[in-house]
Amino acid sequence: MEWLDTLMQWLHLAAAVTGVGALIYSRLVLFPSLAEVPAEVRGKLAQQLVARMRPISFAAIGVLLITGFYNYLTKMAERPSSYHMILGIKILLALHVFTVAILLAVPPGVNPARDARRPRLIAGAAISGIIILLLSAYLRRNY
User: Phi-psi category of 16—alpha, beta or left, where left has phi over 0 and alpha has psi -120 to 50?
Assistant: First the structure.
């Protein structure tokens, strides 16, 4: 079923790019723009943004988990141990990104300490996401 393998690979890549792209956009464009907005408007706008992004984030995580398990189960028999090592690093980084996405799904104002750290959390998750994409390209090219 080559068409199913291709579909799963495409869904996996599309979900990863959507998630990492949203993180990069948030950190480089959205947060600097929100800093220019008056505080009373900023809080309401931030709540609306989180409410709109939450289902997208959760859908991307779900698609990545389903397609990742599918890819793992269908292709692991023919891979050397070095592939598994790099894949393990990739999975740990993905868990970091998933955790940050779940933390950011909580509306602003619930935890003021976390609200102050949002830009830093997003920056760290974006860096992890970029490294995941790099590792994915390496695995695809070399194995």
Answer: alpha
Q: Give the closest residue to 21 by CA, choosing from 140, 143, 129.
A: 129
Q: Is the dihedral of CA 7, 24, 135, 55 positive or negative?
A: negative
CA distances in angstroms from 129 to 33, 35, 98, listed in the order given: 22, 24, 10
Tokens, residue 135:
């590792």
Distance CA 126, CA 100 (A): 10
The whole-number pLDDT of residue 40 equals 86
The conformational region for residue 109 under phi > 0 = left, psi -120 to 50 = alpha, else beta, is: left
Structure tokens at 107: 């509306």
Q: What is the mean pLDDT of residues 108-120?
A: 90
